[in-house]
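Dissemination and training. As part of the outreach component of the grant, students in the summer workshop were shown how a complex can be specified as a set of sequence lines and then modelled as a single object. The example used during the hands-on session is reproduced here so that future cohorts can follow it. Participants entered these lines:
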Amino acid sequence: MGWLNAIVQGLLLGGLYALFATGLSLMFGVMRIVNLAHGDLAVVASFLALALVSGTGLPLWVVMVVTVPLFALLGYLTQRVLLQRSLGAGPLATLLVTFGLSIVLQNILLEVFSADTRTLDGGSFATASFHLTDSTSVGYLSLTTFLLACAALAGIQVFLSRTGLGRMLRASADDRETASLMGADSRHVYGIATAIAFATVALAGLMFAMRSSFDPSIGPSRLIFAFEAVVIGGLGSLWGTLLGGMVLGVAQSLSAQVDPALTLLAGHLIFLAVLAFRPQGLLAGRAA
Amino acid sequence: MRDIPTGGLGRRSFLSGAAALGGASLVSACGGLKGTGGSSSDVLKIGYVSPQTGPLAGFATADNFVVKQIQQAVRGGFTAGGVKRRIEIVVKDTQSNPNRATEVTRQLINSDKVDLIVGSSTPDTTNPVADQCEANGIPNVTTIAPWEAWFHGRGGKPGEGFKYTTLFFFGMQEFADCFFPMWDRADVSSKNVAALWPNDTDANAFRQGLGPMMKKSGYTPVDGGAYQNGATDFTAQIATFKESGADLFTCTPIPPDFQTFWKQARQQGFKPKLATVAKVMLFPSEAEALGGLAANIATDFWWSPAHPYKSVLDGKSAKQLADDFAAETGKQWTQALGSVYSLFEIAIQAFKEASDPKDRDEVAAKLRGMKIRCMSGDLDFTAGPQPGIALQHPVGGQWRKGERFPWDVVIVDNSANKAVPIGGDLLPTNA
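and obtained this result:
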């Protein structure tokens, strides 16, 4: 029964990883930007929500509903003001910009919020669960996170395949010059992509903050799982990201059953194996 | 890096002054500048190294406040070696990085020319700082690191110790003395103790040290396995603990991991009757972060406002120090407040006892032979498990809902140190 429990928990954890990785996948797929500040942005979102909760006294779910679009707006601005300027200077420049952003964000957070460990208090929702079997209990929070991840991915998928803007986005991802010739304003399109990426990373950050805790320096350690989920699933494939997250989550929880010392190692090994034997990822896709 | 020049000349203004003097050598510039503030031998310089930024920054919350307090306490100067002296404190930040700790300690020794170095918080700070001081012959005292990690981690020779470096804190035996009495009093049906010990220096020390002590006292550790820090899922450990039927729980994870574990344990139905944790829940901010789940988690307290201790400098009580801290910063006290305060008490005491406070060998000898009743209680550096180590005896406290702040500590077990008054009953963590 322990194994069933491990698989269930691993799958749910995978949902969180996937939600986390979506933005990374999207930004890479569309703009070829490897956003090293991704983890820190999630932490920023958590702190923003924390400040809103303590500042306004609004319930957490309202704050979440506010934070996510706010972050999307922030994403659009970041792209137009900061990242767009570095795009012309080659991939290394954007890498350095996001790396710098990561350090700047960490230190600003430390200065403003101090190094204290915080969480978003989800109340009983964060710890309540229902029993699937005697030994397997499913937390409402984990399940919600998983469903949110699926919903977010499905939403982005529909947006990309059914809307005009989505088509422009895919066109720009495929060939920026030609798309521009056809009237797609690549800067606006990139802004939209970053906005979506920021919205998902905010959502992931908030779920992570409720599940676990956060402090200004924890961002980079979260980034690694997102990276692995993206690579395992296949760069640029949205559903691949979900699959990658779940593979990573299950690999970690199953290996923990054997020996907890193997938990992270197993995830990294799967990641390496995919890189070595199937570098295009489990679901190689080009759907941005 | 943050330089906090305090009193007299800061390093930066000093350097810019040195630069302004053009071709003048650093040494003569030094003499020339110091001449403005009285004879240089009147000023005793203390270097302070701590992790003010980075993951360990929680330990350093009270640093600025303590430095100010110390300067206020000795603002009139004090007599050492027959001459009226005043102190200057140079603060350095390790950024929670041991390499950086080495570097800033070297700066203190070579550029700032300090007379004594104090340092605090975790072996990542204390060990590199102490190593540099030992190598350069600078008297040094550090705290908040288990003495085993400080002593054995630096290759200390049993029975001999170090010449220049000293430490006050506690070790594995004191953890046992603090935790076991609480376990004995807890109403549990199983003597199994669930132990969440990751694979790092601290936890491995517990695995090898506390594990056997538990067995000797009739408890069976149920090791959850040596997982890697930064884990996001504890399903396997929780399953192991549930299976063992353990009613007692202990751990030494890193703080973010504990938050994750404790929430997940509740989610998956592992509810130990008594949790006595180490390394985490040391600070009110952690209790606040856990919210309602923090209630009645017990941990070790080597300092609290309830401790009946007084400053050797101005007689300020522990409670007063905590209150002043709250009034000035708006923050709740932390255990590091008392420890960092004592670092300076001890440093100043060593200066006072020495016939020549500028004589490093003599000051170091005074540190090694120090017996002091200070903010951290009675410290005897001659009676420790190894020379140059003074032991503290932490007592058991539980987190409860507070009045002034959301969470406060109630001392519930003083078996290890009867001087500390009991503040309330030992209550089950999960009834």
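Residues 2-31 of chain A form the longest helix (30 residues). Students were then asked to discuss how this feature might be tested experimentally.
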